[in-house]
């Protein structure tokens, strides 16, 4: 037996083309937030994603430089990593 609120929630999900599970996941994450708080959270998540990409790029650059230095110094075996400066 479902309550009127559950039926209304299910109808809202179907009306917007999302599953009931998706609706409840969204409601659990954003249900108690004000609109401004949800917008701020979305902006912070976007900034976090951007910063993670920058960090990954920097780590790749550093690894490439270490490899280049290891090859340039032919006396240094490739398995030995130069110490960070």
Give your account of this protein's structure.
The protein contains three helices and no strands. The chain is mainly α. The protein has two domains: 32 residues; 43 residues, no CATH class. It is elongated and about 70 Å long. The mean pLDDT is 82.
Topology:
Layout: H1 4-15, H2 20-30, H3 35-72
GO biological process, one term: DNA transposition
Protein name: Transposase IS3/IS911 family protein
InterPro entries: Homeodomain-like_sf, Transposase_8, Transposase_8_domain
Short description:
GO terms for molecular function: DNA binding; transposase activity. It comes from Rhizobium grahamii CCGE 502. The chain is mostly helical.
How many structural domains in the coordinates? 2
Radius of gyration: 25 Å
The number of distinct helices, counting runs of at least 4 residues, comes to: 3
Q: Helix and strand succession?
A: HHH
- Straight-line N-to-C gap: 67 Å
The number of distinct β-strands equals: 0
Feature tags:
85 residues, mainly alpha, 3 helices, 72% helix
């Amino acid at each position: 037996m479902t309550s009127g609120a559950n039926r209304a929630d299910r109808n809202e999900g179907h009306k917007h083309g999302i599953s009931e599970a998706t609706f409840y996941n969204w409601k659990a994450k954003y249900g108690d937030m004000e609109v401004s708080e949800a917008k701020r959270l979305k902006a912070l998540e976007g900034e976090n994603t951007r910063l993670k990409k920058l960090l990954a790029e920097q780590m790749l650059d550093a690894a490439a430089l270490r490899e280049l230095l290891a090859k340039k110094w032919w006396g240094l075996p490739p398995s030995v990593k130069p110490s960070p400066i």
